[in-house]
Structure formats: C-alpha cells, structure tokens
Amino acid sequence: MMTTPSLTPSSSMTPESALHPAGLDTAVLLRKYRSKLVDHWAKAIKEQPGSSYASRPLEELRISCGECLDAYAMLLETGDSGPLWAFIERVSHFRAALHFPPSDVTEAFMILLESVEIVLGPAVGQGEAFIRLMRDLRGCTRTAVKGFVNTYLIHLELAHSSLGSL
Asked: Does domain 19-164 have CATH number 3.40.50.2300?
C-alpha cells in the first residue's frame, strides 16, 4: 500500500523576513501597488517566449498573480503561511493537470522580482528600503518555488501511482 506524501510545509520553508517586523513594510508596499504589480507581472508571464502561459487567458494569470501577491503580503505581515501553501497547492495541482513544465511555473514566480524592480523601484528608490523589499520578496519567492516543486512532484508521483494501479 502506498502512503500519500505530506503536502504540509516544513518550518525551513518560511522566509526569514516573515520572522521580523521589517516584512510589514514590504506587505504595505505590496498592497499599495497591488494592481500595478499584478498587471505588470501577469503580462510579463504571458509574454515569456516559448512559455506554456502564452496560451492562458490574461485574466487567469492576473487572478493567480493577485492570489500569490496577497499570500506573500499575509506571510510578511503576520507570519501566516496558510494562504501561501493553499495557493501553492492549487497552482501545483492545476499546472500539473495542464502538463506545464515546472520550469515555466518557477520562472513565473521569479518574474515577480523583475516586475517589482520596474513597478516599485521608482517609488521606493535604490536605498535601504529597496534592499529590504527585494530581500523579503526573494525569501517569499524561494519559499514558493521550493513548495511548488515539492508539491508538483507529489502530484506527479500520485498520478503515476494511480496509473500503475489500473
């Protein structure tokens, strides 16, 4: 009998920024510029050459980017990783069902960092606030990518095991 792998995050997957109040500043910025960030991020994902996202509706990408951004803000503001893990689970399941290469999804997470530089860079400047912002978001992104890859692999393993039992 096969056991189902756990989809529960490990404590090593919580970004350091969620453990101190500096993450609150980043959460405030994410909320203040949410609309612009979501729009830029979704368009940048869709426009990636050769990406599986090119065929997806832009509104679907906007919704997904917004959910991820909200989960990052919650994690940074309160330390609550529940919304991020729920988002990772949904994305992993949905993208695996569509046979997306995991590299396309991990790249989509990384594109947020570029969008933040473009959208928030002028507003925040290049000083300490910008360095903290990028550090916080790299921590969230690292957590999301690790969680996505692990969860995506679990979905693939479960799919293969169910095929083997036919």
From this structure: no
